[in-house]
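tool_call: predict_structure(chain=1)
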Amino acid sequence: AGKSLFCLSAAVIVQLGLKENPMHLAQKHDQEKILWLDYESDQEEFTWRLRCIHNGLSPFYKDKLGHSHIDYRRSTLPIIDEVDTLQNLVLDKGYGLVIVDSIAAACGVTDLNKPEGAIGLLSAMRQLKVTSWLIGHTAKSEGNKGASIFGSVFFTNYGRSVWEMKKVQEVGEDSLSIGLFHRKVNQSKLFKPLAFQFTFDKDAVTIKKQDVKDVVEFSKERRLEDQIT
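tool_result:
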């Protein structure tokens, strides 16, 4: 669904503290140090994706992009088994954000439906005392409620803010649309759906914010009163 691509693009904006950015994301701080824990890919693919994002942003932020750096860590052990090492990394480097891609492998359990995996992972993340983005996969959609996080309900229950991501892309097209739908929150309001278009051109990715109602597949996710209006 483009989860890693979206999160890495947003991470670049957070890391550089870009107040004006193509995703129209509000920035709380000027810059943040970021650690990316990768359980699915490798550093070569991560670096290639990061370079494509930089190339797409460079016409607008050429001076700042030279200072962009997201620390990469290829991970294999469950987070709960190396939480002490990660704690030391966070303290030593001063990370403000840790991104986990993805929670299925980071749990280190064979049955994600049992609560132990989710509780262990989220308890370990809490010990890091730092903001975290946890990327997961989705279970089958339940009617109009949207898809839930695959596995134990505790992934959702313990999450402070949960967004579902969907992708729309025609076969053979060089662009894709990504929709974000706010499913759960603890300390704020639920935000309206967001949509973004990612366009690929050789070794560059350009990002543009879209209006949700302009993407038919996403428009159906809006509140009924908004659809009627």
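agent: Helices lie at 3-16, 43-65, 83-93, 103-107, 115-127, 154-157, 216-219, 224-228. Proceeding to next step.
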